[in-house]
Amino acid sequence: NPLLQISELTIDYRTGRRRWTPAVRGVDLHVEPGEFVSLVGESGSGKSTLIHGALGLLPASARIRSGSIAYSGVDVTGWNDQRMARVRGNYVGFIPQDPNTSLNPVKKIGRQVIEAVRFNEPTAGTAAQHREAALESLRAAGLTDAERVFHQYPHELSGGMKQRALIAIALAGKPKIIMADEPTSALDVTVQKVILDHLVRLREELGIGILLVTHDLGVALDRSDRILVMRNGEIVEEGPVRRVLENT
Ligand code: ADP
Ligand code: ADP
């Protein structure tokens, strides 16, 4: 089974009292184990809506009209918030767009990673084991000085380090697949590349699947196995990087 299989998915936004407008139209998308897939498209093409739909993070003004979402063959379409929170914590690592709004400013990084570890295995392990698992996640996210970062607050970290802290939180749940929503747009280009290369390494070392959402074809190019191009709510191109490039 694919890690993620989206089939014929259509998502609407409420745009009036009895009016709904589709933002995602009949989309098919799959991510296989160890695969790096990039979803590219201009702003407004429906990328965020699609990924939020897959994660159970749609706003109340949106609805899944038809289609299905399955993780490793388990159909999660229509699951409630609580069950989807478990899917996000234990199966999908979600790296949100902006580290400044996604990290808790008044909690030390270590505490935030530990919470993610404990959400993954709420009953297993001692406090010391949770701490060690959190440090391991920080190191796996490329924070070599994990002990130090553990005791720091978000505002004490650079943009790149905050992004890595978010990766650590995502990894703490031992995900099979990582979804990243423009994870690098707030960072300068050099840091962007380092972070993306780190995602590539995670895929190679842990066999994690990666779904990267970006409006920037450039960042997706060298690193993806497959690219999907979204326009006006639909996938208009799909395939290996080279072939998609020839067609666009
Ligand atoms: P991005 O292109 O970076 O995803 P947007 O500017 O499209 O950012 O969206 C920012 C926020 O505004 C999102 O929460 C989105 O759901 C909301 N939004 C975008 N378009 C509309 C719209 N037409 N009506 C209401 N909310 C919208
Ligand atoms: P992208 O992530 O590619 O920038 P979005 O998924 O944010 O695209 O938006 C897709 C379409 O849905 C756009 O036309 C946008 O204006 C619309 N949209 C996004 N959020 C909302 C919302 N909360 N309410 C109404 N329309 C929205």
Automatic annotation (TrEMBL):
Q: Which residues form the ABC transporter domain?
A: 4-248
* Compartments in which it is found: Cell membrane
Task: State the family it belongs to.
Answer: Belongs to the ABC transporter superfamily.
Designated name of the protein: Peptide/nickel transport system ATP-binding protein
Instruction: Write the span of the intact protein that is present.
Output: 10 to 257 of 555
